[in-house]
Amino acid sequence: MRNVAECEGLDYLEMFIMATVDAALAAQNATIAAESLGLGTVYIGAMRNHPEEVPATIKLPP
How many domains does the chain have? Predict the structure, then answer.
């Protein structure tokens, strides 16, 4: 039998997976829309962890 503390997050697992899938679908649609306008795109997963460093690394304007 599992400890109650081990199972606390299970109620939120489905919501987390749905949110992750929804975000990926939104990003995919934004990418397709940008590409239809002749723009390039790239997913940057490090934005969450390094929001100040990424713009400098890819040389974004201020």
Answer: 1
DSSP code of residue 50: -
Query: With the C-alpha atoms ordered 7, 12, 17, 23, is the resulting torsion angle positive or negative?
Result: negative
- The pTM for the full model equals 0.61
1 and 7 Cβ atoms separated by less than 8 Å: no
In tens, the pLDDT along 10-27 reads 778 888 999 999 999 999
The Cα 42–Cα 20 span in angstroms is 17
Is there a domain that residue 62 lies in? Answer: no
